[in-house]
Design brief:
11 helices, alpha/beta, TIM Barrel, eight-stranded parallel barrel, single chain, 10 strands, about 300 residues, two-stranded antiparallel ribbon
């Protein structure tokens, strides 16, 4: 496993991270989830990414149970807040009230007294940005959060948060968590340059485009697969993209990589990326994904990939 700095700060995170979205505490039973987490640590992963809204707190609960058997300081644990957690009108958003109450609930579910990273899980148009930045900065001051970050924020929103923090000598966000993969490259135009300019790391989610970039849809949509049962993939599970993935799969085979490993290595080609957040429903998937760490794709291969993606 290779490790990278979280932007310009001193924290080191594994190039491959393990996330709990759509899996732990939900579709994956607790024993399997814990087996995946054990495999992750055995393979050198030190970064576990969560959110309170994942399985409505159950993802944090499962990881908290597993965490009891490990040295807390060996791991980088992140969570997020923003989405509604109840019908209470104040149990949502990025108000000071919701942030302060949410972090306490997250810490209790995890059984720890601090988070390494705490993300604002979307931008809150209904709360003054200064209120949000001051609350997150206060959590850092209190030691309950070591670093704070943004998730799925626009470039100008990130820059504005930095300006607010600087004005009152608070703690800046240190990391952005956006969606990024071969089929969704929207962050390349402004978000990556903004983060690089201000020294923020990037930890990206959906690196395999909800499974499309594993190649499992190359020969059709299997019954009971995510593509068959969810409308989330409608915009990307197109004949054009399937053909692109078929061509990319041939490239991966030539390099003796799986399609997933090629997709992960392609993201890690950019030095601005600190870590890639992967999901896993079985320990074998963790082991396979980790093999993408340290893979260097030759320039001619990268050019060939660009041509395929542009076709």
């Amino acid at each position: 496993m290779k490790y990278r700095s979280l932007g310009r700060c001193g924290l080191q995170v594994s190039e491959i991270a393990l996330g709990g979205w759509l899996t732990y505490g939900g579709s994956v039973n607790d024993d399997t989830a814990k087996a995946c987490l054990r495999a992750a640590v055995e393979q050198g992963i030190n970064f576990i990414d969560l959110a309170d809204v994942y399985a409505h707190g159950e993802s944090e609960r499962v990881v908290g149970q597993w965490l009891r058997d490990y040295q807390r300081s060996d791991l980088v644990i992140s969570s997020k807040t923003f989405w509604p957690m109840s019908d209470n009108i104040n149990d949502r958003g990025l108000s000071r009230k919701h942030i302060m109450e949410s972090v306490e609930k997250t810490l209790k579910r995890l059984g720890t007294d601090y988070l390494d990273i705490y993300f604002c899980h979307r931008y809150d148009e209904h709360t003054p940005l200064e209120e949000t930045v001051r609350a997150m900065s206060d959590l850092v001051q209190q030691g309950k959060v070591l670093y704070w970050g943004t998730s799925v924020w626009e470039a100008d929103q990130i820059a504005n948060a930095i300006d607010v923090a600087d004005r009152f000598l608070g703690y800046r966000p240190q990391v952005e968590q956006p969606r990024y993969n071969m089929l969704d490259r929207h962050i390349e135009d402004s978000i990556i340059p903004t983060c690089a300019r201000h020294g923020l790391g990037l930890v990206v989610w959906s690196p395999l485009a909800q499974g499309i970039l594993t190649g499992k849809y190359n020969d059709g949509i299997p019954e009971k697969s995510r593509g068959a049962e969810s409308n989330w993939l409608d915009q990307e599970l197109t004949p054009e993209n399937i053909e692109r993935v078929r061509q990319l799969s041939a490239v991966a085979q030539e390099l003796e990589l799986t399609m997933a490993q090629l997709a992960l290595a392609w993201i890690l080609r950019r030095k601005e990326i600190s870590s890639v957040i992967t999901g896993a429903t079985h320990p074998d998937q963790v082991v396979a994904n980790v093999k993408a760490s340290g893979v260097t794709l030759p320039e001619d291969v990268l050019q060939r990939i660009e041509e395929i993606l542009a076709s």
